[in-house]
Amino acid sequence: MPHPIMFDDDDPVLARVRKVALELPDTTEVVAHGRPTFRCGKMFGNYGGGEKGNRVRHDQSILVIADPAEREALLTDSRFFLPAYLGAYGWVGLVLDDETDWTEVAELLDASYRLIAPKKSLAKLDGQRSTENP
């Protein structure tokens, strides 16, 4: 039995996340477990999720693989949460709302992408970044 869809395709917050995530080279969007996921071979972003240890859902959130050096600091910030299932593998969640800093979202997705992307995709990203900032 497939998972129920747990997002609205017309969600404007999801549209902003898609724009940021899909600008990264070789990225695809795949619905998995009822939620949009962003991948470059492996998954580096997930839209929406629940907190580990309770039934609190954050349907407008982004889950990313945190830089191990920053993970604990991120989790001390009340905007972040330890996601169910993925939290045990180094992931964190960020609640998205009207106060969201979209530059921060882009940086988190970029850092997560860099942890999983193959070298050829990273080379494309770095080439893209160098042409944006001459």
From TrEMBL:
InterPro entries: YjbR-like_sf, YjbR/MT2646/Rv2570-like. The keyword Magnesium does not apply. Pfam families: YjbR (PF04237). Keywords: DNA-binding. One of its GO terms (molecular function) is DNA binding. The keyword Cytoplasm does not apply. This is MmcQ/YjbR family DNA-binding protein. It comes from Gordonia asplenii.
